[in-house]
Specification:
The protein has 239 residues and is of the alpha+beta class. It has six helices and ten strands. α1 runs antiparallel to α2 and α5 crosses α6.
């Protein structure tokens, strides 16, 4: 069984450009977080378009989930480009999405919205941000905990809403998920206030997906000084 909790908040901004959603039943589902880019018009339109395209297109039992993710995110990008033409405005969004299908986990992302996978209570896999700051971390110029405060954190190398540089990274978990495994999907407005080890500590304390999210949110609220970005998270625990 899949236990899920979703939370989104406009933070210190005047409106919320993040979108979150899921479709699931028993041990099968699709889960999405998208973050409309600040500084672009209609960010919330772009993020909701990305989310809705993925959720509406998903069908359990797909033979090739990698091909599906590549196709559906291309479709979402095309839908956003069409909206740009209709509204005469540039709009862009990140996306991170997880497919769970009878024990098989596959995820994809474009941009800096993240997914963390927990196994045996520890982070076993995570997405790599498509950002200049993350490149600097991989090159050894900054520490991982310094990404959120780096001047280039918002300089994204891939997003939905352009003719190119939208293609997702797709990852197939090489083993079946197990009871106790967990996933954390979030926008940068959430992960920037959390350290990796804190997510694992709060998961160990949590009774369910909602409790896990609440524990992490308490940490975030203690660190937010005002004027913060929209924050969105999705917690998933296999039971």
């Amino acid at each position: 069984m899949i236990d899920v909790y979703e939370y989104t908040n406009q933070g210190g901004r005047s409106y919320n450009e993040d979108s979150v959603g899921s479709v699931y039943k028993d041990n099968t589902g699709i889960f999405v977080v998208a973050d409309g880019l600040g500084g672009h018009a209609f960010g919330e339109v772009a993020s909701s378009c990305a989310r809705d395209t993925v959720l509406s297109d998903w069908k359990p039992g797909a033979q090739d989930p990698v091909a599906w993710f590549n196709a559906v995110i291309t479709k979402a990008n095309n839908n956003i480009l069409q909206l740009q033409q209709e509204k005469g405005e540039i709009m862009k969004s990140t996306i991170v999405a997880l497919s769970l299908d009878n024990g098989r986990a596959v995820w994809a992302h474009s941009g800096d919205s993240r997914l963390y996978y927990f196994h045996d209570g520890l982070i076993a896999e995570f997405t790599d941000d498509h950002s200049v700051a993350y490149k600097k971390y991989k090159a050894g110029e900054i520490e991982r905990d310094e990404i959120a405060d780096d001047d280039d954190q918002s300089a994204l190398l891939r997003t939905l809403g352009g003719p190119d540089r939208f293609e997702p990274d797709v990852f197939v978990l090489p083993h079946q998920v197990e009871v106790g495994d967990a996933f954390f999907l979030c926008s940068d407005g959430a992960w920037e206030f959390l350290r990796d080890e804190e997510m694992a500590v709060d998961l160990a304390k949590a009774d369910d997906a909602k409790h896990w999210a609440e524990l992490m949110l308490l940490r975030m609220m203690d660190r937010i000084k005002g004027g913060n970005d929209n924050l969105t998270l999705q917690t998933i625990i296999i039971k």
